[in-house]
Amino acid sequence: MWIPFKDFGYICHLMKKLCNIPFPPSRFPFFYGWMILIAGTIGILMSIPGQTMGVSVFTEKLLRDLPINRNNLSLAYLIGTIGSGILITRAGKLYDQYGARIMGFISGGILGLMLLYLTRVDRIANFFRGFLSVISNELAIFILITFGFWGIRFFGQGLLTLISRNMVMKWFDKRRGFVNGVMGIFVSFGFSYAPKILNYFIKQFEWRGAWMLLAVILGIGFVTFVLIFYRDNPSECGCQTDGEGRFRISGKRPPSHPVRDFTLGEAKQTYAYWMFTLAMALNALYISGITFHVVSVFSSVGYTAQKAINIFLPTSIIAIFCQFIGGWISDFVKLKFFLLFYMLGMLTTSTGLFWLGTHPAHYWLVITGNGISWGMYVLLVAVTWPRFYGLKHLGAISGYALSWMVIGSSLGPYLFSLSYEITGSYDTIAIVVFCIALILFTMSLKVNAPSTE
């Protein structure tokens, strides 16, 4: 009897055994971890169609051509994102079971299919309404586009990012922080330029053609790249982390991995896990909220739209500096201090937001705080979990934490909007974020590596 899931498991097991095809990484002219760094960086960049900045470029075109208003489009995006966050923990467990090569192939391929699906949601709606006439065209579009948003958020922003980042972290140990800093630089630049590139595609091919082009790049080009270059971990390929001990760095250093690997259940019982997870979720909520409403936030206190948009470049420069220097230093310093610096950034930006418009310095408080917090997020989201909890259940542990961040990012725009609707300003959300950040800063003073708790 043919059982598809058993066949799938056998194929996955076979692919993991064929890690030396089309070439053995152990015979690469240099440590293959550096190739993994390049591949993982490309993987994260390929998730851009499922990231907020990758979707926002298409928003006005969807509103123009589809029978859906702005509120319902935002609601569809919210529901899709929350659905993605709920399922990402399970996806992390599948990553632990099947590895980066297989899961990267699946996530890249399905992300491409979901983009193709989104180009045809209005046609699909008309098809279903042919025998379900009780459903209005607007409702059909809402349901179908919600599913599409879930797909690109789950397979792009969630799964593909998780796979690519964790794969890189598995290939490095003593230099994990430094490598993450290097990866963060290219990812930050890529994310910064992505809207311009996507907007160019839209101008050349319209929004349907742009998504079709991205679907081909992902569904053919990227999945082929994954099969050729992705490898889950060095031990399966006859390699060692950091390249057979080539990096001998003297001096006192914190442990780069725990004495034993933690399960997700064990990790959730530790104080450190929740401090880092809640800090990242708060940052995701705040950054997504202020980014989504950036023009409104600044215009509400008298700044122009251009002045609002101008915060992104200096914020990116500060973030890149913090994540690179922080990544290098993190190989030698306890992560607790980066968590405190992280919350200091949140306190700074929320203070600037509350006083925004009363003095020019507060404009720069928002920029500086955003840059610090985003830089520390990129560092801690990659380095914390393997250092504290090991590699065996890395997908499940990082996936569960990511689910909190995804849900936080989906709630941010709504809570910012609610603050403005009820009070006529963003002061209330600034106060709430400041208070939570202050509590987390105080509680983080007691954070230690789980093995020493």
Task: Outline the fold blueprint.
Blueprint: H1 4-17, H2 32-46, H3 52-56, H4 59-65, H5 70-118, H6 121-129, H7 137-171, H8 176-229, H9 242-245, H10 264-268, H11 271-292, H12 294-299, H13 305-309, H14 312-330, H15 335-354, H16 360-389, H17 394-423, H18 427-444
Helix pairs in contact: 1-5, 2-7, 2-8, 5-7, 5-8, 5-17, 6-7, 7-17, 8-14, 8-16, 11-16, 11-17, 11-18, 14-16, 15-16, 15-18, 16-17
CATH topology of the largest domain: Growth Hormone, Chain: A
The proportion of strand residues reads under 5%
Number of helices: 18
What's the end-to-end separation, in Å? 51 Å
The shape is: globular
Low-confidence stretches: 246-251
How many individual β-strands? Answer: 0
User: How many domain modules?
Assistant: 2
**Could you give a short account of the major beta sheet?**
none
CATH class of the largest domain: Mainly Alpha
* Second-tier CATH architecture of the largest domain: Up-down Bundle
Give a written overview of the molecule:
The protein has 453 residues and is mainly alpha-helical. The chain has 2 domains: 10-18 and 26-241, Up-down Bundle (Growth Hormone, Chain: A), CATH 1.20.1250; 264-452, Growth Hormone, Chain: A (Up-down Bundle). The chain contains 18 helices and no strands. It has helices at residues 4-17, 32-46, 52-56, 59-65, 70-118, 121-129, 137-171, 176-229, 242-245, 264-268, 271-292, 294-299, 305-309, 312-330, 335-354, 360-389, 394-423, 427-444. The model is unreliable at 246-251 (pLDDT under 50).
